[in-house]
Amino acid sequence: MKKATLYLILLLLGTAFWGMSFPITKMAVQAGSLYVFLFYRLALATVILSVCFSKYVRKVSLSSLTCGSMLAVPLTVSMILQTKGLQYLPASQCTFIAGICVILVPFIKWLVYRTGFSRKISIASLIALSGLSLITISGKLTLNQGFVYVILGTISFSIYLIMVEKQKDKYEIATAIVPMFAAGSIIALCLAIVDNSQIWAVEDQDFWTGVMYCAIFSTAYMYSVSMIAQQYLSAEKVAVIYLFEPLFGAIASLFLLHEPLTWKLFVGGLLIFAATLYSELNISFKSK
Asked: Which of 55, 161, 208, 219 could bridge to 235 as Cys pair (CB 3.0-4.6 Å)?
């Protein structure tokens, strides 16, 4: 089996983990501080990956630390903003909004690096924007602040994907994984310390379930697989695999949080899914 195909399968599995993490995270942050939750999540993921990737930890150099620290900034910002969004929006809505990174990645690359921006992406963006509008704009034509948090978090995550693609040719990217999560842990810890609502010893079981699940599956597993996969797949190709995340997220939210599947969410989510699928319909996953 080609490595590109293997990582495609691993990423698809990871989208199920990521989709389920939205309702699980929502339950967790309702029981404790957002920043404390993220600190525990990232710190535990750092410990797990330090053990699993011990051979890469031994290879960590100043360049690895620099690369990991740079990547930690947009990654941690995206986690913070999307988690804040969960405090204002249903988890199922957040998953669909986060799914537009498929379109944002080529758009940001065009904006910053002046790479090609096809007519197909333009059409897909308009379709996705229609879906987003249907999901997020209320009858009074107002936007929930949760939408602003999630969309900004999605932009930050798209920047993270592009940065990984740019850094992979400069460094041995696997050696930057543990430093990246360690740096993210430090950022979250600093924010938790100055957070007036901090509770370090949370008693609610949902909080610790969320920490364990997110640290193991949607952080340690998914981000490490995603980073290594980008040695064989472009940022656009990795992003398109994420379009399955909203489907898993909506299903998990239905069962875990009993969130209703409204016609707006269904039609808007369908438009976003159709847009992301259309934007990457002719991609073939081949190793470089």
From this structure: 161
